[in-house]
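Field reference: sequence -> structure
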Amino acid sequence: MRRPVLLFVVLLLLVGCDDFKPAEKPDLDNVTLCSAEVMVCPDGSYVSRDPEHNCDFKPCLETGYGDPTQEWGEGELE
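Structure field:
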């Protein structure tokens, strides 16, 4: 008898924690959908299209790192 009462109390607490607010529907009138294309940047990273800027590609980030192999010389192995 204690188990069903305990189960009822736990369920009552769980249901009581819900705020019972209906979900709001999103505003689909002002949504811009872009194609799922990506562009390869010079550093090898990828950028996607930006729906806030007429679906143009987002700018590539300038990392400033460049190609690390350019700094390699004809060194010797130790």
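Note: Strands lie at 38-40, 46-50, 56-57.
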